[in-house]
Task: inverse folding
């Protein structure tokens, strides 16, 4: 009952699939140095065939079931529904092994890397969540793992650094620029150019084509499960509305994937507004950004008048990215998805509320998705699915600081 991705993906030639050059509308492509071309081309030539092969599907499904713990439940949040006057379901990605949706992607990419004969894996990480998910699958497969992480983040995220080391990964500090995620990504790309034989396991629907499409396909399991779970629970496989938070956009891409061509399903992407959209301390890319190129693809990003990347800010490290993936730039520009945002304060309030009324401590990233409920006009019979991208254990220190407020 888990997946029937092969058949469905073959049929999918919708408006929100990339063209043969990896463009979603005007966004996407592969802006890479020439030295990386053979590597990226090899992946591009093979990824769909690998993902759709019976052998891959069998291994991927089996690991998602027995290692990750899928399918993740679709939970009817009764008290939250009563409070907001709608039928609210939570897609429980927080119950996955390692505590978030990120593992769906790393399991898939590690299998693809193996099929391509790669033995060395590199990854970038901000808060360490993607680093941990990557180190986990490398330990599972016995592959060498190097994770690039900003020097500042290494200090701020000590528990995740310890996890990665315990899992056998080498953590390399990025010491340039602001010493955070974008610098770690730059370091990873630099290393990749020098060692093109390595496999770059990207953590979201970002980077040069085919990475955004590959990661979206690997996260699509989320909406695939939602369809039969909703059918079972409501009699209809379509909800009225799907809400997900957006950093790079992978959990949202997964939650939206099988509904993108179904225009009657409302898609809501929620960005982090930090201290306020126009406060200068924000990560609301769609509101503040312009078209430009970041990490190998054309998309919307926060930049100054000289095209330099503006440092984003959010209380949640996972949403603290200056761009969005090209699919999301297209969902935004075409109006297919509605983009909303939530401030640090609104996200914190939503996290405390969910914990008190449903007994679930969400990740701070996820709390941004929950935080738009009070801003919406809802109908009593409106079926809403909120993608609960991760659990909040990692954010305990931040929650403790705000417990008394
Ligand atoms: C990393 C992370 C995100 C943001 O990444 P996306 O690629 O936008 O999904 C959201 N929620 C959680 C729990 C995360 O760990």
Result:
């Amino acid at each position: 009952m888990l997946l029937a991705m092969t058949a469905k993906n073959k049929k999918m030639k919708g408006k929100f699939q990339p063209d043969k050059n990896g463009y979603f509308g005007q966004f996407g492509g592969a802006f890479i140095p020439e030295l990386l071309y053979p590597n990226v081309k090899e992946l591009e030539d093979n990824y769909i065939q690998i993902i759709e092969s019976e052998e891959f599907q069998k291994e991927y499904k089996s690991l998602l079931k027995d290692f990750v713990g899928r399918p993740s439940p679709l939970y009817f949040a009764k008290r939250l529904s009563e409070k907001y006057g709608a039928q609210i379901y939570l897609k429980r990605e927080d119950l996955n092994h390692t505590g978030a949706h990120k593992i769906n992607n790393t399991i898939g990419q590690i299998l693809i890397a193996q099929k391509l004969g790669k033995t060395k894996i590199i990854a970038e990480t901000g808060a360490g969540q993607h680093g941990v998910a990557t180190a986990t699958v490398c330990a599972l497969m016995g592959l060498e793992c190097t994770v690039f992480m900003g020097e500042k983040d290494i200090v701020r995220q000590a528990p995740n650094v310890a996890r990665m080391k315990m899992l056998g990964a080498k953590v390399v500090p990025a010491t340039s620029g602001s010493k955070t995620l974008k610098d770690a990504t730059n370091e990873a790309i630099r290393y990749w150019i020098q060692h093109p034989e390595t496999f770059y396991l990207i953590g979201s629907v970002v980077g040069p084509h085919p990475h955004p499409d590959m990661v979206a396909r690997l996260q699509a399991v989320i909406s695939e499960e939602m369809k039969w779970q909703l059918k079972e629970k409501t009699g209809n496989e379509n909800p009225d509305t799907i809400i997900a938070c957006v950093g790079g956009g992978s959990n949202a891409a997964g939650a939206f994937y099988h509904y993108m061509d179904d225009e009657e399903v409302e898609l809501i992407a929620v960005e982090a507004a930090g201290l306020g959209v126009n406060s200068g301390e924000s990560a609301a890319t769609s509101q503040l950004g312009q078209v430009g190129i970041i990490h190998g693809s054309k998309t919307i990003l926060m930049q100054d008048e000289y095209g330099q990347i503006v440092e984003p800010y959010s209380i949640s490290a996972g949403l603290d990215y200056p761009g969005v993936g090209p699919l999301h730039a297209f969902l935004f520009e075409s109006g297919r998805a509605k983009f909303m945002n939530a401030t640090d304060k609104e996200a914190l309030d939503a996290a405390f509320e969910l914990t008190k009324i449903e007994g679930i401590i969400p990740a701070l990233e996820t709390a941004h998705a929950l935080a738009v409920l009070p801003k919406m006009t809802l109908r009593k019979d409106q079926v809403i699915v909120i993608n609960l991208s991760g659990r909040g254990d990692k954010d305990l220190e931040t929650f403790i600081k705000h417990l008394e407020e």
